[in-house]
Input
Amino acid sequence: MEHQDDADWPARRREAFEAHERARQRAEAAEELQAQALVADFLVRARELGLPAGPLRARAYNGSATFRTGLSGWYLQPSGSLGISEDGQFYVLVPPGGLAERLRGARIAPSAPPLAVGRGARDGESMSLRELLERRLAAGSQFRRL
Output
């Protein structure tokens, strides 16, 4: 009997791994839906408050150069590293930053908004997306990008 259990071990291990992966994917999808709802609410409230959207520029990793993106929206942090476009897309505004970006502008793809911004960052600065959006709305037109 023990030999049969040993023979089934790889199959049981694979099944457990696949079940864990499906659960992780469901949790990520649920988190993304919640975050997208927060972003949609931010858009409505920003417009109600009359917060003007502006051009979103990307900043190189070292912070020394900025690049055109062709996007318009709102920065979420003074560093300018996160933004929401007028069509409700979430962007991490940090391109690789090379000569091509300086000449043509940076092409930034939208990202899935996280519920916890900065999770796993080296500086330890993380906060909920809800808190970040609330802070941005509270700053209103007084918000300044560094």
